[in-house]
TrEMBL record:
It comes from Corynebacterium callunae DSM 20147. Its cofactor is a divalent metal cation. It comes from the Bacteria. Residues 48-371 form the Amidohydrolase-related domain. GO terms for molecular function: metal ion binding; N-acetylglucosamine-6-phosphate deacetylase activity. Keywords: Carbohydrate metabolism, Hydrolase, Metal-binding. GO terms for biological process: N-acetylglucosamine catabolic process. Belongs to the metallo-dependent hydrolases superfamily. NagA family. Substrate binds at A134, N218, A219, R226, H253, I306, A307, G308. This is Amidohydrolase-related domain-containing protein. Binds 1 divalent metal cation per subunit. The active site is at D272 (proton donor/acceptor). Pfam families: Amidohydro_1.
Amino acid sequence: MKSTGEISGRIVTPRGIIDGTVSFKDGHIVAVSGNPAADNGLASTGLTLVPGFIDLHNHGGLGGAFPTGTVEQARRAAQFHRSQGATILLASLVSAPPEELIKQVEVLKELCAEGLLFGIHLEGPFINACRCGAQNPDFIYPGNPEDFGQIIGAAAGWIKSITIAPETPNLVALLELCVQHGIIVSFGHTDADFETTTHAISQATALGLKVTATHLFNAMPPLHHRAPGAAGAMLAAARNGEAFVELVADGVHLSDGTVDFARSERAFFVSDAIEAAGMPDGNYILGVLEVEVQGGVARLKNGGAIAGGTSTIAQQFRRHVARGMTLCDATQLSSTTASRVLGLRQHAIEVNAPLNIVALDSQGQVAAVYVKEI
C-alpha cells in the first residue's frame, strides 16, 4: 500500500458526511476536503470511505483458527479479516486447560508484535458451564487468579480482554489482575441474575475497569420482564454509561429487530467469526469441538448450539445500511464505539489521524483498505 496519496468518495467524518477527498502522507491523513452530503446510504457511484472496522471478538477465518492454529494459520485468518476491512482485531481464544492457553498466547503474540493483531481476547475459562454455548464444558472451571496470572505473563502484555461470568469465584482477585495489566473485563457465558451481574459491574467500575458484555443475549438467560437477568443488567449499565455491549449483528445470533432494540452509543458490532468465515459450507473446528456450517450458519455437530459466526464486520455494516441504517450510525457500531472501548484517541477520518480507511463500493463490498503499517 502506498503511504502517500489521495482517495475520493463519500466520506464518513466525525462531523458528518461529505463528498470529497482524503489526502495522506507517510501513513497519516494530512487533509480532508469536500462538500456536505446526505447520509442516505452507500454512494450510488464511486466509493464510500469509512474508518477501519474494529472487531473485538473473533476466533478466525479463511480456514485459520486463533484458538488452535499455528502462527501461519492465525496469520491467514488475520490477513483475511484485514482484507475485509477489520484493521483492528482481537484474536479470541476459547476455554482450554491453562497450559494450552499459555501455549496459544505465545503463538499469537508474534502476530501482535507484527501489528497484524491488536491483541488477544480470552473467552473463558472462568465462565459458567451451564451457559457454555459452543465451548467444551470440561475446560470451564472457577476463577483461578494464579492461572490467569500465568496466562497474562506468557502473553507479554497482549491480553486486552477477558470474558468472565459474574458469578465465578474469586471475581475480585481476577478483576484486580485486570486492573494491573490494563485488561477489559467482559461479562458473559453466565447464568447470573440481574442483581449478581449489576454487583459485578459495580465492582469492576469501582476499580476503574472498562466493562463490556460478551455477545449480548447469547450464552446468558433470556431477557424476561420479571427476570431481566444478565442481559438486562448489561443494558441498564450501558444506559448509565458503565458498560458497553457486543452485538453479533449477523441475523443469526440476533434478529435485526433485537439489534434495533439494543442499539445505543455504547453498543458495537462483533463478528464472533470462526475459521469458517470466508469459506464454503462444510465441517470445521472451534477449539476441540466439531462444527458444521450449513447455509452460512455454524452449529455444533453434537447438540446443535450456534458455534460462532461466519460473517465479517463489513458484512454486518452492509446488512444494516441496506436495512436503512445511516452511514454515521453504522460507522459508530462497526468502528467508533469499539475504538472508545480500546481507548483509541484518533480512529476517524480526520486530519492528523493515522491512515485507517476502508473504501466500499456501491454494493458495500470492500474495494480497498488503507492502513498505516507498523
